[in-house]
Design goal:
The protein is an all-alpha fold. Helix content is 74%, strand content 0%. The protein has 14 helices and no strands. The longest helix has 26 residues, at 272-297.
Length: 323
Amino acid sequence: MQTEIPATNTAASRLGAYLQLCRAPNVFTAVADVSMGVIFVRERIDPAGSWLALTLASALLYSAGMVLNDVYDVDVDARERPERPLPSGRIALARARRLGYGLLAGGVLSAALGGLLAGPPNWMAGRCGLVAVSLVVCIWLYDALLKQTLIGPFIMGACRCLNVLLGMSIACPGLSPAHVLAFGDDQLLVSVAIGCYVVGVTWFARGEATHSRRALLMLGFAFMAGGLCLLALLPRWFAVDSQYRHVWPFALLVLMIPTLRRCLIAVLYPRPRNVQAAVRQCLFSLIVLDASICLLVAPWPWAVAVLALLVPTFLLGQWIPST
């Protein structure tokens, strides 16, 4: 007589497969980005309803990108990572495709709602929605067309840049719809710096499952360092009223030493295990970067709140692979 698998175990297995498909631990890095964007322009989480809608949008769009990444890479994963949810058959390809595009649509709608809840002027909903649509275009271009090209890492960096700008988009830039896509120079510097850092992480992650070329790892390290240098110049180039502005570059370097050390180990010994560990550390360090930016521009409790996102990131990371 065949033993029947308990329904609870089946449900738990299915949930784990979907969480792995969405790279659940990494979702909190996207939430940290958009939360930092809100705090950067408002110096606090305000209004709370708008922030909730934008964080939901960010989580949905990030998850969509991960799902569609596996949808378009299913043949490659079947060779290199057959244990993933799609090549292993735990989730049907057609269902994953519907899920990915559904998450994209939900992300845009949630972003528009975030702009609507931000208050007057009423075109703020369009502002947030346009940033979200731009993010959707970059996600699709990366997953469907450009991932393996030279421009692919820059598209991924643009995704993170736009995610930060999504949070910043609830600050009214002017008095007319002509300013709908206008952002301050300091806002652009921060978003571009985070984007540059992610360009480096993406270069670093190429070939992580099999064989990584040392030249690409060095290129990725250079882009990450470039992004950090841009952030270090923030209080020097702009009038940042903070008690930490004079020690900011040194503090930023100290905070990132563990990550940079792990990356250098991967460059020197480019084995899959070392490279994957470095990529995971780089992704989690985005939360540290976001929290440190919050500390520079806002009261310290907001930085602690963003830093607390490391807790679910690490806890889920013990169960769900993040790369």
